[in-house]
Structures are given as structure tokens and as C-alpha cells.
Amino acid sequence: MTSKALQSFLDENIADLKERGLYNEIDPVEGANGPVITINGKKLINLSSNNYLGLATDDRLKKVAKEVVDTHGVGAGAVRTINGTLDLHLELEKKLAEFKGTEAVISYQSGFNCNMAAISAVMDKHDAILSDELNHASIIDGCRLSKARIIRFNHSDMDDLRQKAKEAVESGNYNKIMVITDGVFSMDGDVADLPGIVKVAEEFDLITYVDDAHGSGVLGKGAGTVKHFGLQDKIDFQMGTLSKAIGVIGGYVAGKENLIDWLKVRSRPFLFSTAVTPADAAAATKAIELLMESTALNEKLWENGDYLKAGLKKLGFDIGDSETPITPCIIGEEKAAQEFSKKLIEAGVYAKSIVFPTVPRGTGRVRNMPTAAHTKAMLDDALAIYEKTGKEMGLI
Ligand SMILES: Cc1ncc(COP(=O)(O)O)c(C=O)c1O
């Protein structure tokens, strides 16, 4: 028997979300998630993925994934500490450490898991975490899990960060204090002021944690935001995902040997959840190798990003202050953003609306993510559709 309390909770809340334009419909993608996707039998130019370098459908990654299914099977079998760790996971971590320029790396099942794992392995209720107000949901949840006091600072505001760090230190209430930030903010495309954060961290002895889910593969010729600023020796935790630019699945934390050793004995998703499949580990390793061999994909990504941004700006859209290929078209009201996205999709561009709670209320937007796999012709088609639909809706 279903609980009446549960039913009324679900009915009321789902109806409320629909009424307020906050209910997200999930579209079924038929086939691969490439630069052009098929939804309900219709081909659409895909500007909604995080597959920045087009590696999710790359033949070289597919080849190694197929090969290791034959040599290693389809599953990792057990948690790594219980049944021994596969050579493929160790190779992945070794390659990632080389790529990131750190002593060691630990890999997890997802980027989200990294933040659940790493923050609470180090921080506890006697500590405080200074967290940028626009940090990703997984950072927020990871901080909450740690039970540390969470102190939000204004987005990328170094004066506010410094003031709050000073107050936290002077209060004498905390054993340790961490500052945590996205490297690239995924909904706006702006880059964290890591040099500013490091300066405050050095002044107040803060632990530094950068979630580089959207910076890896994109900034620093692919090696990420920390490398972009040349701060590899100054950031304690470099967290990244293997699901976006790397094109596969999984996440990792890069840092000093003793930090990674600690995470291997104390972080719960590592200790109590099975690692990614052999095919995932091998494909991700291959992707890292490709990025270390050549910057061609990274350069193509930036070329396409700059092209789309210039085109949308010229048409008169508000594309915010993005410093990366992430290109929001900020509409404002949630329902209008959803309506615009719907019309774009009908016309042939898969660009999804992003609304509260992913972004602050009243800043509803359509988020565009050109990738290295898009051709100029695809981007031109997308711009033509943006122009026509934007004019029809009176947005430009
Ligand atoms: C900043 C940030 N951190 C972490 C994650 C989670 O990564 P994953 O999809 O690998 O779980 C995301 C994904 O959206 C993200 O944008």
C-alpha cells in the first residue's frame, strides 16, 4: 500500500513545480550523444552537452573500451579495498597525476561522488568552509555532509572572502578552515579568481579546494584552471570529472601523496562503493593520453566557442560574462527561458533552459555548449535558428 502522505506530497509538489515553470522534462536521446542528436526521430544540433572535446563518441576511446571488455570483463567486481584494485584504475590515476602535475590522484565513480567523498574526509564539525555562493550543488552537499560550518562568500568577491576568512580565524571557533570554489562556473562560464583565493588562503592558512569539472580539458591547454594560473603547488585539492571534457564517467581528486593516502583510507565513496567499469577506466586513460599528446581538440573547442559567442552577441543576446566556451543566453523570467528553449528545439537546436534552483531566480537562461566536434556549418545553422526564433519571440 502506498502511503497517503507520500502521494499528497508528490502530487502537490509536482503540480506546484509545473505551475511555476520549474519542472524539467527529460528528453530521450536516440543513439549517441554527439554534436547532432536525435530526439523523437528529429535531428537536432546539440548545444547542451558537456562533451567539450567530442570524446564521448571518439573512435579511439571506443576501441580501447571494447578491447578491455574482452580482457577485463564489464564490471570492477567489488570495492577496491576489498577485492584488490584493477590495474586499469591504477593506470588511470597515474596518468591523471602526470596530467595534473601532482604527486598523486584518487579516482571515484563520479564528480559528484568526489565532492561527497573528499570534503567530509578532511573537514568536520569543528571546522569551517568558505564557499563561493555560486558553487555547484555537489560542493554544497559535500560541505553539508562534513558538518563543518558553511560560510558563503559573495561570488568571486575577494574582499568578502578575506573579511570572512579573517572573522573565522579571529573567532577561534574552528580547528581548520577551507576555501572551496568551482574552477569554471558552469552556468555562467566565468573563471574563479584563483590567484586572489590563494593570496587569502596564504594569509589565513586556509585549505584550498578547486572543483574543476568544467575547467579540465578546457583551460590550461586542457590541464585545467589551476594549471591555467600556474598554481599547481598552491592548491591542496584539485577535483575533476571524467564525464565532461574527458567524455566518459568518473571523477578524481589530485593532490599531495599524503592527502591521497588519507582519502584512500577515509573517504566513504571509495571505501563503500564499487569503482567505475574497466571500459570506463581504460577509455578515460586513453582520453588523458590524447590530451597530453596534442592540444588540437582544445584549440578547436575554443575556436568554436569564440565563434558562437561572437555570433550570438552580434544578434543582440545577453551572453553574460563568460570567459570560456560556455555561452549562456540570459532571458530572465523562468517561463520565458523555457518557452525560448522549446521553440529553439522545435526549430532544430537542442539548447536547454536552465532555471532555478540551478541558477538564481529571475536569471533563467538557455545554455549553449559548443564542442570541438561541431562544424562551422552546424554553428551557422544554429545561429540562423537563434536569429529567427529570437525575433519571433521579441527577444532581440
Ligand atoms: C562543478 C561540478 N562539479 C561536479 C559535477 C558532478 O560531476 P559528475 O557529472 O561527474 O558527477 C558537476 C556536474 O554537473 C559540476 O558541474
Provide tags for this entry.
396 residues; alpha/beta; 15 helices; 16% strand; binds pyridoxal-5'-phosphate
Notes on the structure:
By secondary structure, this protein is α/β, with parallel strands linked by helices. It has helices spanning 4-19, 59-72, 80-83, 87-100, 111-122, 137-146, 158-171, 194-204, 225-228, 257-266, 268-272, 278-293, 296-315, 334-347, 376-392, and strands at residues 29-30, 36-39, 42-46, 104-108, 128-132, 149-153, 177-182, 207-211, 237-241, 251-255, 327-332, 349-350, 353-354, 364-368. A seven-stranded mixed β-sheet has the order 4-10-9-8-7-5-6, sandwiched between helices. A four-stranded mixed β-sheet has the order 1-2-3-12. A hairpin with a 2-residue loop joins strand 2 (36-39) and strand 3. Helix 4 runs parallel beside helix 12, helix 7 (158-171) runs parallel beside helix 8 and helix 14 crosses helix 15 (376-392). The longest helix has 20 residues, at 296-315. The radius of gyration is 22 Å and the shape is globular. The termini are far apart. Residues 110-112, 136, 138, 182, 186, 211, 213-214, 241, 243, 251 line the site of pyridoxal-5'-phosphate. Residues 110-112, 136, 138, 182, 186, 211, 213-214, 241, 243, 251 line the site of pyridoxal-5'-phosphate (PLP).
Backbone structural class:
alpha/beta
Radius of gyration: 22 Å
Give me the side-by-side strand order of the main sheet: 4-10-9-8-7-5-6
Order of SSEs: HEEEHHHEHEHEHEHEHEEHHHHEHEEEH
Number of strands: 14
- State the end-to-end distance: 53 Å
Q: Helical stretch count?
A: 15
